[in-house]
Design goal:
Length: 320
């Protein structure tokens, strides 16, 4: 099974600042882009180091650990070995200065160091746990069946005109041609929702991704049909034109394999954490956890989206 990194820890350095400084000063060994020599002893000597900063060596193992760290916090950023060593030199200099000033003895710094130490340990433990998993096809297929069983059979492509006033909606409905040929034009002219500028186009969606009244309406309409009456929801009155209906595309088991591995692995990790909590003695001393941040409102799906997009309501979030 592929290795999955389950936790990311926050950055300790401003990489651009540290990596961008000039490589000034005397460098007592090869801090170049050439491959680093192998280190054979547990304690590196100056000759085995890529660089020595005020008597402290930077070894090949240090560089490899730093590369792993960089890949965790910036997974899609190319790494230049020469610049990386320079960044490590700058970091080493700053750490040495911080130590000379006794900053590591400050209480706030100690707490931050504990947080980062815990994150590194957890990251290593979780990595070992996930690498040790041997997920069978039977487990993956069971998860696959559970996933696809929750997929709705049909998707819908529709346009709508959203109006706050029912009488106005009924008036616009009378102006529409039965074949919908002027629907987009009237949507641009009258609709009070964001999709109006796009002719009321909502793209492809599942019925459950809409507010119940809207989703229920499209499920009972035929392809090419315009709603006979405006549909009332908490956001106003909708005139709906159902342009098309299709079977929901379902990815094959093989196409879903890697995603299924991550889902099953995450579930097993949660089970492992639950077991640890069950065995542990935990005493919560009455501290109230902060309230979670309010999620950002969902936006309308792109008109050409090939997959169902979570869309709580036409033009508006379910919980505005």
């Amino acid at each position: 099974m592929k290795r999955y990194s389950a936790l990311m820890f926050s950055g300790l350095l401003v990489a651009g600042l540290l990596g961008g400084c000039n490589q000034g000063g005397e460098q007592k060994s090869g801090a170049t882009e050439k491959a680093a020599p192998a280190v054979t002893s547990e304690k590196a000597t100056d000759e085995q180091a890529l660089a020595v900063v005020n008597g402290e060596p930077i070894t090949r193992e240090d560089v490899m650990a730093f590369i792993q760290y960089k890949q965790q916090i910036q997974p899609n950023t190319p790494i230049n070995p020469g610049l990386l060593v320079n960044e490590m030199i700058n970091t080493k200099l700053l750490v040495q200065e911080a130590e000379r000033k006794g900053l590591e003895q400050r209480e706030d710094v100690q707490r931050q160091l504990q947080v980062h130490r815990a994150a590194v340990l957890v990251n290593a433990l979780v990595g070992d746990f996930l690498k040790g998993l041997d997920l069978s096809d039977e487990e993956l297929r069971k998860e696959y069946e559970a996933q696809i069983s929750g997929i709705e059979k049909h998707e819908y492509k529709a346009r709508h005109i959203l109006l706050k006033d029912k009488a106005k909606a009924e008036q616009v409905l009378k102006e529409l041609k039965p074949d919908g040929s002027n629907f987009a034009e009237l949507a641009k002219k009258y609709s009070e929702g964001p999709s109006g500028k796009n002719g009321g186009d909502l793209g492809w969606f599942s019925a459950s991704s809409m507010v119940p009244e809207f989703g229920d309406a499209v499920k009972h309409m035929k392809k090419g049909e315009i709603s006979k009456q405006p549909v009332k929801s908490e956001f106003g009155w909708h005139i709906i034109w159902l342009e098309d209906v299709r079977d929901t595309p379902v990815p094959s088991f093989e196409e879903s394999r890697e995603r299924l591995k991550m889902i099953v692995a995450q579930k097993k990790l949660q089970e492992h954490i639950a077991e640890l909590r069950e065995k542990a003695k935990i005493e919560v001393q009455g501290m109230q956890a902060p309230a979670p941040a309010t999620p950002a409102p969902a936006s309308e799906p792109a008109a050409d989206s090939a997959a169902p997009q979570p869309l709580p309501a036409p033009d508006e979030p379910v919980n505005p």
